[in-house]
Amino acid sequence: MRVLLVEDETRLAETVRRGLMAEGFVVDVEATGPDGLWSATEGGYDVVVLDIMLPGLNGYDVCKELRRREIWTPILMLTAKDGEFDQVDAFDLGADDYLTKPFSFAVLVARLRALIRRGAPERPVALAAGDLSLNPSTRRVSRGGVDISLTPREFGLLHYLMRRRGEVVSKVDILQNVWDAHYEGDENVVEVYIGYLRRKVDQPFGRRSIETLRGMGYRMAADGR
Amino acid sequence: MRVLLVEDETRLAETVRRGLMAEGFVVDVEATGPDGLWSATEGGYDVVVLDIMLPGLNGYDVCKELRRREIWTPILMLTAKDGEFDQVDAFDLGADDYLTKPFSFAVLVARLRALIRRGAPERPVALAAGDLSLNPSTRRVSRGGVDISLTPREFGLLHYLMRRRGEVVSKVDILQNVWDAHYEGDENVVEVYIGYLRRKVDQPFGRRSIETLRGMGYRMAADGR
DNA sequence: CGGAGCTCTCAGCGCCATCTCAGCGCGTGC
DNA sequence: GCACGCGCTGAGATGGCGCTGAGAGCTCCG
Asked: What is the Cα–Cα distance from B211 to B193, expressed in whole angstroms?
């Protein structure tokens, strides 16, 4: 899940970024209004977290401009508590949710998950591929009723593969969406994590749900095989 | 699908090249403005990805010159995000799309596919020839509902034949479009791969959809025979 | 400060995709 | 009808792709 955080207070931005990453999100940070607008337009994010007070262009205008450009990525606004901003307005100009600073991190995560779910209504709450099921909101994975424990990275990878089950996904594509849009490292990480996943979700059950297509990428069997 | 990438940062160029190849594109890279201009003029590419900052001749001028020469290959511009280049200008001088660095690879692929589709609007999403069907986006091939597993090279060859079904395609033509514009090897590879394809898509089904025209080339039956 | 868990790197290896080559069959031209 | 050569195919050679085990960093805990 790719999140764009537009926030100019570097200290807060960094805290939130690290926290969200630990929750399995891929996070990019922009510090100004124009940069945020630009990334939100071009970056293909699943959700945007937008501060109001920003240099260059305020969050209010960024949001308005995005909707004017017909970009419907869910937006969560961060408002200061001194009420410089009326919450009614936030919805008027196309935000999908808002949070007043200071906010609880757990609440932020919950709201983001809700937005992402709502943002793509065709996406079911729990993803299923045969008897393999993954629930993004509870972060639970199970096969035939047996719970499987995954690390954040493993979960992110399986989530992405399941969202795109039946399709061939290249390693570059995976790196961009599960790791980071401008990840510099080796594609071997993907192979390593595919291996981890297979050992947890396939081998104990004698399945082969993650197929390797040499030279192309991987494909999650739509029926979980 | 043949892509010309004009980009002087070798690291980025190599990453993009490998990624696009994994997505089934044939990619040639040029590192300077003049070389890019030359290849774009002579190479018969389906789309050109053009960086702005280039040695010799900048992307801005390459684009303008191509249009002046009445070469209408779709062009996707890569601009740096520090705004040295105004996006309005890109369209003015004949670019078809633009992307700011750093960009998401998935977005790049989607834009390229859109440009190529737009360049030839008659092209459907999934190719069909009788009961044989090939879907470039999922990279799935099936005959009468039965999935067929192909290697990347086999897929590329079948894709090309199906795009030009009903036409006679010479081996040189195939080498240029499925292998590489400046491929040095023997034409025998094509024969070998035609053989592989026949064993996978024709023989098991008792068909003869790939016809040999001695001395001329091959023809994919428009109705899949 | 030590241990546990997660992430990522690295090197080695096995195997698969690709390509080459040689031999042969058959179509084609004479 | 004959011979040439185009195209087909089976048998490798090879290079690199993908998988894996080991282990190094890092963070989070106690």
From this structure: 14
Beta strands in chain B (DSSP E): 2-6, 26-30, 47-51, 75-80, 97-101, 127-129, 132-135, 140-143, 146-148, 168-169, 210-213, 217-220
Interface test with A, best of B9, B25, B97, B104 (most A CBs within 10 A): B104
Q: Nearest-CA distance from B202 to chain A in Å?
A: 22
Q: Which pTM was predicted?
A: 0.56
Three-point CA angle A165, A23, A81, nearest 5°: 125
Q: What is the pLDDT of residues A173-203, one digit of tens each?
A: 899 888 876 777 789 999 999 999 999 999 9
Residues A124-153, buried b or exposed e (16+ Cβ, 10 A)? eeebebebbbbebeeeebebeeeebebeeb
Q: How far is A81 from chain B (nearest CA, A)?
A: 33
Residue A174 near residue A186, CB atoms below 8 Å: no
pLDDT digits (tens, 9 = 90+) for B91-106: 555 666 767 776 777 7
* Residue closest to B91 by CA, chosen among B108, B109, B77: B77
Name which of B131, B137, B106 is nearest B1 in CA terms: B137
Tell me if B22 and A176 make a contact (CB, 8 A cut-off). no
Pair B62, B38: CB distance under 8 Å: no
